[in-house]
Task: structure prediction
Amino acid sequence: MKTMKLIYPLAFALAIALASTGCKHEPVDVTKIPGTGAAVVGNENNNQTLPPGNPLQTEPNPNEFPGPIATSSNWDPANYSPDPSALAAYTIHFAFDSAVIRDSEQANLQAVASALTADPNAKLLIQGNCDERGTEEYNRALGERRALAAREALAKLGIDPMRVRTISFGKDHPVDSGHNEAAWQQNRRDDFVLLHPKATM
Result:
């Protein structure tokens, strides 16, 4: 009987001790969403100098000019007319799951920088895109990192980053609707849209 009186308090104390302890679970491979913290942006030399770009639009409308919600520059996209064909030949492409700008893309970046230098009144919108693989959230973040990487590269070529805005379309705007590597290579890209000031009356 005395033994039973000792067992109950010990069992109760053990149950309380077990309930108050638990395992800590550290997050694994958490993708930072642009706008919530510092973005990892770089190039093949892994140089990082610019702050993160503008917050993302959550659901871009392909029928409207995709002006990102911006706070980092003092110009309004509504005052500019987009000219998507002007720099269409200078789209840059990325390796799978990468925002690193390859050396083979430097000539296209230089051409974009030259166009902006020749027209100091123009602004630039960089649209980051991904292939269809991966989740919507992951591809939005990856598309923004790709756009930010191009913005950083242009800054190193002498372009004021305040003239540049970024947006991510994730996997929503493929140029090739195929489901193979050839299509995916075309869809992993940054598009450059030149913005001209609207004529004032």
